[in-house]
Amino acid sequence: MRNIINFKKLAQNSLRRKALLIAEAGYEAIEIEKVIKKRIKLRGNKLKIVHSHILENVGINKNLEKNAVNAELDRLGMEIDLNNFKRIFVIGIGKGSALASAILAKILGKRLNKCIALDINKPHLNSKFLILNSKFFIGTHPLPSKQNIKATQEIIKLTKSLNEKDLLITFICGGGSALACASKAELKNTTSAIKELTKAGAAISELNTVRKHFSDFKGGNLAKMACPAKVVSLIVSDVCGNDLSNVASGPTVLDKTTKKDAEKILNKYLRKSMLIRALKETPKDVGCFKNVKNILFVCNQDAIAGTIKKIEKLELKARIYSLALEGEARTAFLPMIKNIKFGEAIIAAGETTVTLKNKKSGKGGRNQEAVLGAINKLNLRIFAKKLTTD
User: Fold this and answer.
1) What is the Cα–Cα distance from 150 to 132, expressed in whole angstroms?
2) DSSP state of 351
3) How far is CA 350 from the centre of its chain?
4) Beta-bridge partner residues of 322
5) Spatial contact of 179 and 153, defined as CB atoms under 8 Å apart
6) Which residues of the chain does CATH 3.40.1480.10 include?
7) CA-based diameter of the chain, in Å?
């Protein structure tokens, strides 16, 4: 089954078909069920979490930026002796975390005491997944709601009940910043701030800095609540540079930003915002994190690796433009297009920004704007009009 559901409709010629096959390969490379079964193994009472050695397998070292290489080298695996713990819990936060948690629950089997996940969808559970002692909540995204608070409070209740003889394994995924919401105050302040900051074109790192300092859950607060239990956090990164403190606003990661940083961001975009009064500091006591292991489990390099394999299979030459592409979406693709060579496929990953100049809601997403912006600048307006009606 294809991830691109309208593949046949879009594949109107050979070039389009190749482009779609490359995109499809990227999706397949990060399908969470396949990744977990490949990288998490239970042998007896030893749970082994392995990394993928993407650089060695694909041979793309020379194409990677220095910071991306360092991030890959930091992708650490570990082995956990489950005999060392009396109770084992799984928590999932973010898009795709419910399915990931369900798969891990199946691997752990009767060893698992309880599983809770907060996602935008429930996993398609069947007999192959263990659902005993599991609760799956559906929350709202990109803005939180009361149902997000209810689910987050369930997670907080479980986390605060842990002791030094417990093991907590978390799946932290993109979208967790909006899904996890601990209180009515956080709901009110976050909704107001994020709406305005998004319209103003604030970067995702700036959005998450503000989110952390409205929250009793993000910015390392989950790790603080879990202390002194052992926490292993499997992080599915959707942020440029794979800064783990930015994924879902880093609930298990020591936050290096401060209340003052959040205040500067609000002043930069909103000026003299009353929201500044609601800001709070995130945990800075390193002792809260001594039993926490944060692992970069999946990131955009996995998708890039999948696309490169497909590109080579299609007898094209792959070139990585960037693994941390940022900036205004409507101009992001121009440098790539200007330098492309015949028989070459340029790959870029990252997160661009869409600024709503009229401060009203727009239609579509950043990738759509990036493509149409490039077409517009290349004076292919007729083609752009056709694309919007396809």
Assistant:
1) 21
2) -
3) 11
4) 348
5) no
6) 314-389
7) 65
More confident residue, 170 or 110: 170
Q: Cα separation of 338 and 261, whole Å?
A: 37
Distance (Å, rounded) from C-alpha 217 to C-alpha 80?
A: 26
Average pLDDT over residues 165-175: 97
Cα dihedral 117, 155, 241, 301, rounded to 10, equals -20
Q: Please give the helix or strand (H or E) that residue 43 lies within, else none.
A: strand 40-43
CA–CA gap between residue 64 and residue 76 (Å, rounded)? 19
Which amino acid would we find at residue 202?
Answer: A
Task: For 203, list phi and psi in degrees, rounded to 5.
Answer: -70, 160
d(Cα 231, Cα 71) in Å, to the nearest integer?
21
CA distance 54 to 296: 13
130-140 pLDDT tens trace: 466 889 999 99
Cβ contact 269:278 at 8 Å: no
* Residue whose C-alpha is closest to residue 292's, from 227, 198, 357: 227
Helix ranges (H only) for 314-380 are 329-332, 334-338, 366-377
> Nearest-CA neighbor of 1 among 30, 24, 22, 29?
24
Residue range(s) occupied by CATH 3.40.50.10180 in the chain: 35-301
Within 8 A by CB and 6+ apart from 381, the residues are: 375
Q: CA-CA distance, 177 to 96, in Å (whole number)?
A: 14
Confidence of residue 96 (pLDDT cuts 50, 70, 90): very high
pLDDT grade, residue 222 (50/70/90)?
very high
Amino acid at 142: P
Q: Which among 204, 268, 272, 201 is positioned nearest to 239, based on CA atoms? A: 204
The DSSP bridge partners found for residue 319 are 346
What is the DSSP pairing of strand 78-81 with strand 46-49? antiparallel
For 217, the enclosing helix (H) or strand (E) is: none
**What does residue 266 show for φ and ψ, rounded to 5 degrees?**
-60, -40
Beta bridge partners of 92: 117, 171
- Output the CATH code of domain 35-301: 3.40.50.10180
CATH fold for domain 314-389: glycerate kinase, domain 1 (3.40.1480)
